[in-house]
Specification:
Helix content is 67%, strand content 0%. It is mainly α and 229 residues long. The chain has two domains: 45 residues, Arc Repressor Mutant, subunit A (Orthogonal Bundle); 142 residues, Tetracycline Repressor, domain 2. The protein is elongated. The N terminus is likely disordered.
């Protein structure tokens, strides 16, 4: 018996279409962040290895071991020991130099207040951290390795001297400082800071310095006036 021509042929039921599977989630770890963290770990390890062994005796395999990377990984970031050393110094001092520049050029701020802010920054970010190890290393190794002393002078000392001289010159011109000694010899401004780094390493356990009071007294000598904190 034939089916009626008007009767529709029943189509087999079809399963609902499946949604395409989502693409695999990307790793949450940013390769650039991982590389930056690895580089920071290497620089931190380098700081302590150089400080403990000196420039000549510092070994790159020990730096790698402390940073938790293979020795070959170091060469992905730094071409040799000198390049690593210079990068380590820059990473330690660049934030300080940037903030010093901001402080020194602050408008309508008295020179005495600028120097107080600078002294406070040095106490907190150098004397109070492992950054002081960089200074000790330069003092100890600079005479034996003139290239690292020249590098540190160019990157740090000359820039700091220029900033301090500008502050002292402005103080003399406005009459805030009664003599021009600090403007002529801006090394006078930073002298007690270098002394403090040396003193802390040699005698700090026996006779700690009262740095706030020492630096306030030093500021009075620079300005030729009595200062009040």
């Amino acid at each position: 018996m034939s089916s009626s021509p008007n009767k529709r042929t029943r189509q087999p039921a079809t399963s609902p279409r499946k949604k395409p599977a989502p693409p695999p989630a990307k790793s949450a770890a940013d390769p650039n962040s991982a590389a930056a963290a690895r580089r920071a770990a290497i620089l931190d390890a380098a700081l302590h290895v150089f400080a403990e062994h000196g420039y000549e005796s510092a070994r790159l395999d020990e730096v790698a071991a402390r940073a938790g990377v293979a020795k070959g990984t170091l060469y992905l970031y730094f071409k040799d020991k000198e390049d690593l050393f210079e990068a380590m110094v820059r990473s330690a001092v660049a934030p300080i130099m940037g903030r010093m520049g901001h402080i020194a050029t602050a408008p309508d701020v008295k020179a005495a207040d600028v120097l107080r802010m600078f002294f406070t920054l040095f106490q907190k970010e150098v004397l109070g951290t492992d950054r002081k190890l960089v200074l000790r290393l330069i003092m100890a190794e600079g005479p034996r390795f003139p290239r690292i002393a020249e590098f540190y002078y160019r990157e740090v000392v000359s820039r700091g001297i220029t900033l301090m001289q500008a502050v002292a010159t402005r103080a003399v011109e406005t009459g805030e400082f009664s003599n021009d000694a600090a403007a002529r010899f801006p090394q006078l401004i930073i002298a007690p800071l270098l002394m403090a780094v040396t003193w802390d390493g040699l005698f700090g356990k026996h006779h700690p310095l009262d740095m706030p009071q020492l630096l306030e007294a030093h500021l009075g000598l620079l300005s030729g006036r009595r200062t009040d904190p």
